[in-house]
Specification:
single chain; mainly alpha; two-stranded antiparallel ribbon; 7% strand; membrane; transmembrane; transmembrane helix; GPCR_Rhodpsn; photoreceptor activity
């Protein structure tokens, strides 16, 4: 298979240009303006993601009431996103500013591994988050009590599973190489061959298709459960509004996941399974940058839109001038990890809703 940006070292020997590790890649890969624009984008991502995810971790440490088992996976997500920022976005920022991978081949392999490891941890964290909500809200295993050990197992699973699928390229099953414009590194999805293609297909199934299926399954069942409860109180305007709010939030979460990971997964699969496909370096880099921007909007969607987290965050940022809001929860109310069900006789009533409370 031939891909235009396939082997940078061989290409440099043929046309006399520098490899991604030896000097600026403009103008033969892209104009200097493209590299400068990407450096600016990565600069914004680094500042925004560091602040947002740093605040999530700091607020979680400060406020004990945020350290509930259902919030463990949110901190796990913030930690993974922060590591993606440190080991991926910062390196991409520096490299795009100078126009090539200035840190060398060893650092390229390390960056490719760390970004893949922490990126997949973040991806699977979203899937585990959805599944935990499914367990707590839909009660598929009866009166299941979600406890600290379950939360810890979920977090450990994301790291263990990610390690299983990101270590192999370090030992010969595919490899980590410069991508697209030569300023970031990742799995070798564009050079073809059985070794690379088999790895990309395995990675697509285990680290994209499976978590996406879990997310769709969990949120579909969550919505069905909410609608079943809401059907018992059709006359209640708050019930209908609650259902619409949860539906809107679920759609937002699924769309954010797809915007982040679908371009990268699809691009890699198409290139890995299609012969004689010519790809422009700039186009080949886009999916990688799509995934890095998720480190900014993940904390906004999954954490800052959480009333508990938002209240504690405002209290922290204002140095205590803005008091925490302490949501009252009556004894008759069962909070099921997302919306509030109030027991009334034999039925359940949706009193209020917030998918990440």
């Amino acid at each position: 298979m031939h891909v235009q940006m396939a082997n940078a070292s061989q290409a440099s020997l043929k046309n006399g240009t520098l490899s991604p590790f030896d000097g600026p890649q403009w103008p033969h890969r892209a104009s200097r303006r493209v590299y400068t624009s990407l450096a600016a984008l990565m600069g914004v991502v680094v500042l925004s993601a560091s602040l947002a995810n740093g605040l999530v971790i700091a607020v979680s440490v400060r406020f004990k009431r945020l350290r509930s088992p259902l919030n463990y996976i949110l901190v796990n997500l913030a930690t993974a996103d922060l590591l993606v920022t440190f080991f991926g976005s910062i390196i991409s920022f520096v490299n795009n500013a100078v126009g090539f991978f200035v840190f060398g081949k060893t650092a390229c392999r390390f960056e490719g591994f760390m970004v893949s490891l922490t990126g997949i941890v973040g991806l699977w964290s979203l899937a585990i988050l959805a599944f935990e909500r499914y367990l707590v809200i839909c009660k598929p295993v009866g009166d299941f009590q979600f406890q600290r050990r379950h939360a810890v197992i979920g977090c450990l699973y994301t790291w263990g599973w990610s390690l299983i699928w990101t270590v192999p390229p370090l030992f010969g099953w595919s490899s980590y190489v410069p991508e697209g414009l030569g300023t970031s590194c990742g799995p070798n999805w564009y050079m073809g061959g059985t070794n690379n293609n088999s790895y990309i297909v395995a990675l697509f199934v285990t680290c994209f298709a499976l978590p996406l299926s879990m997310i769709l399954f969990s949120y579909a069942n969550l919505l069905l459960t909410l609608r079943a409860v809401a059907a018992q109180q059709k006359e209640q305007e708050t019930t209908q509004r609650a259902e619409k709010e949860v539906t809107r939030m679920v759609i937002t979460m699924v769309m954010a996941f797809l915007v982040c990971w679908l371009p990268y997964a699809t691009f890699a699969m198409v290139v890995a399974t299609t012969k004689d496909l010519s790809i422009q370096p700039g186009l080949a880099s886009l999916p990688s940058y799509f995934s890095k921007t998720a480190t900014v909007y993940n904390p906004i969607i999954y954490v800052f839109m959480n009333k508990q987290f938002r209240s504690c965050l405002l209290n922290t940022v204002s140095c205590g001038r803005i008091p925490q809001t302490m949501p009252g929860t009556p004894a008759t109310t069962a909070v099921r990890g997302g919306f509030v069900l109030t027991s009334e006789g034999r039925g359940n009533k949706v009193a209020s809703t917030e998918l990440h409370s």
